[in-house]
Amino acid sequence: MAPPKAALDFLDFVNASPTPYHAVQSSITRLEKAGFTAIKERDNWSSTLKPGGKYYMTRNASTIVAFAIGSKWKPGNPIAMLGAHTDSPCLRIKPVSKKSSVGFMQVGVETYGGGIWHSWFDRDLSIAGRALVKDGKGNFAQKLVKVDRPIIRIPTLAIHLDRSSEFNPNKENELFPIAGMVAAELNRTGKKDETKDDAKVTNADETFQPLKDMADRHHPYILELIAEQAGVKVEDVVDFEMVLYDVQKSCLGGLNEEFIYSARLDNLNMTYCSVMGLIESVASSSLNNETSIRLITCFDHEEIGSTSAQGANSDLLPAVVRRLSVLAGGRHSDSASDKSWEHISSDPEIDLSTAFEQSMAVSFLVSADMAHSVNPNYVGKYESNHQPEMNKGTVIKINANQRYATNSPGIVLLQEMAKRAGVPLQLFVVRNDSSCGSTIGPMLSAKLGVRTLDLGNPQLSMHSIRETGGTHDIEHGIKLFESYLSHYSELETKIFVD
């Protein structure tokens, strides 16, 4: 049996997306192909957004919001929302990364998120991220960087030198990657001297340098690789944000290709399903009779608490939905393209001063973050009646202490959506004697006052450099999200608890 096409496309998506910046760009590629138009947060949307339109915007190039406006939308109507995140645990290159020891060139890194750091040892690693560069016109531009060959490695200590039963490396002293030999760098014909000379010329042209030169902070060859990928000269690289990633590509696995072996399943799996669910919803059902807005948002920084300008605990989603909730209210136009908005200004039921609160009262948010599959070698770590399996459907996550925001009305709603999509669902509750992770669901539910449910596709080895998911759960997730976005306005009034 051939694997679903969605699983193969997901492999392309995750292989092209070693960082949140790349994940956003991969999402944009798919959205633009489906007819979505870019808008900017700093612009006036009331003169840009149209009924039946499809749009996306980004913040910091690492968070993306995309939405489709129903042709019968009016202020105060529902917004069907999906929330995921673009970041994953990783190692990030420090602002001053140049290190060396006993003849080895090393790179200083800091840990991002709660990674299983021992899984990063003895892997073929490279660098990816974004560089801020001079564009030749006095401006500074962002360039994506992805070095596609292994250049960095974190070696384990031979068992002969350490026979302790536990492998628990010190993250500050024993997690330094090696990038090469000092002697080899010194003998690299002309390269090191050229970089130094360029730095001197650049410094001569500048009257004042607040920070040390980039060539003094980082190994010159790493700067050369970044500049090459960015398509600029070394001296034009002003700053960068780079992380390490495993160059081994994601792939299908298992005897019957029932698994996906991949980095960053948490949470690019749900990011991909959210993007494709929105695209499929507008492809399969017309927006002509739609009264709601279908919206997805994929945030950065979930793995470190979401407290940033582009995280879920920011003003981003509240600001976006507040602007959408009053969209076109009271606006008149003589142009034919704007005629469909005209009924709004004379509708006695519309009060723009409370449109946001009205919209949130009838809206819903699905918080989509990966879930735990039962691990056959550690069955005792799972509650006996809640052991999700891979390829058996998306998992609804429940926690009495509100680490997840799910409640009964949400479960009933999602079950109805799954019936329409013909996909299975599963339930998960953590053991009482085990800690429970959390998601963006509870914080956004409290911030917006909106009904919320937490779910995710099941996976093994969460937060490892190499995780395992189900091939068919990609398709399950897309179909479920397509059904939710397409049918929410129809079912909202039928499942309501005041």
From TrEMBL:
Coiled-coil ranges from the UniProt annotation: none
InterPro entries, per database record: Peptidase_M18 (IPR001948), Peptidase_M18_dom2 (IPR023358)
Gene3D superfamilies registered for this protein in UniProt: Aminopeptidase i, Domain 2, Zn peptidases
Molecular functions (GO terms): metalloaminopeptidase activity; zinc ion binding
EC number: 3.4.11.21
GO cellular component terms attached to this protein's record: fungal-type vacuole
Keyword hit for Metal-binding: yes
Signal peptide: none
Any one GO biological process: proteolysis
Pfam families in the cross-refs: Peptidase_M18
Protein name per the record: aspartyl aminopeptidase
Organism: Anthostomella pinea
